[in-house]
Predict the 3D structure of the following.
Amino acid sequence: MFDLDAPITTVKEDQEGLNRNNFAENLAKNINNHYNQGEVNECLVIGLMGEWGDGKTSVLNLTQKHLKEINSEIEIVNFHPWLYSSYNQLIHLFFEDLINSITGDDLKDELRKYSLKLDKLSLTKTIISETLGSFSNSLKNVFEEFAPKNSEEKTLNQLKNSINEELVNHKVLCIIDDIDRLTKEEISEMFRLLKII
């Protein structure tokens, strides 16, 4: 007889094993309480830590199940960063998952624009950096002086402000699982992504 090493998805499966349901249900209630604090538009970050195989994904699955039962207005985004191979792809995949998980055409449109601007800005910086690597420092400084900076960033800030205004009407929970599968460099890129959003 073989046991599958797969995360559980139901309360019944949990009762037959490690009994994490109470923790998951309390976590769901606390997350819901955060979203029901009125006009507060603050981010909440929760870290679920444990060794590989401890059942972190099982807890997340049960928490999502309870959240959907408690508050169907919460829009849940599941993101798996280990599926990407570059920083640009990480940005693209995250925003793709976010756009597919939320409601509201205006918000989706703003998020698409923001994602495209980030892709474009990141690609431009990469090309300039690689091209300038072969130039002397003095020539590099001159080239960077003329490279577009502020206009692109202002556009990003305007889009970000517009997205923040739209998000006031949304309760979005982003679950980032399997960070322990990433290398140190990939974890660093993951946190860079979180910083820009």
In short: The longest strand covers residues 74-79. The helical segments are 11-15, 21-35, 56-70, 87-101, 105-132, 137-146, 150-167, 184-196. The CA atoms of residues 41 and 168 lie 7 Å apart.
